[in-house]
Write a structure and sequence with these properties.
It is a single chain. By secondary structure, this protein is α+β, with helices and mostly antiparallel strands. It has helices at about 40-60, 80-85, and strands at about 60-65, 95. It has a domain at about 40-105. It is built from two helices and two strands; from the N terminus they run H-E-H-E. Helix 2 links the parallel strand 1 and strand 2 (about 95).
Length: about 110
């Protein structure tokens, strides 16, 4: 057949490897477990500071905590609701503390 050209086969693209990577099953480093969750203590401190500033500005208000029970009863400094209730002077007028589990309430 005149006029038809044959197509050239495209060479396969193969990327050259610089070196072989070692395949390991466990890529996560093994770290020791923290004695207690640091985010809970930091959250409690942040909430206490926020409430203190909120009280200074508004001189009143309502505090609502949907997870009011302590996460670690043996660490009361990490209990946000306790820290809020202990803020002096007490200018907040209303407190609504909720906890799903009765076992989580210790006050």
């Amino acid at each position: 057949m005149a006029g038809k050209r044959k197509r050239r086969a495209e060479p396969a693209l193969v990327e050259p490897k610089l070196f072989e990577l070692e395949v390991t099953k466990d890529l996560e480093p093994q770290l020791p477990q923290l004695p207690y969750p640091i985010w809970t203590e930091n959250k409690a401190k942040l909430i206490a500071k926020y409430i203190f500033l909120f009280e200074l500005i508004t001189k009143h208000g309502t505090y609502i905590d949907g997870f009011a029970g302590p996460q670690r009863p043996d660490h009361p400094e990490m209990w946000a609701a306790k820290l809020v209730l202990e803020i002096e002077p007490q200018w907040l007028r209303h407190f609504y503390l909720f906890e799903k589990s009765k076992a989580g309430l210790t006050c």
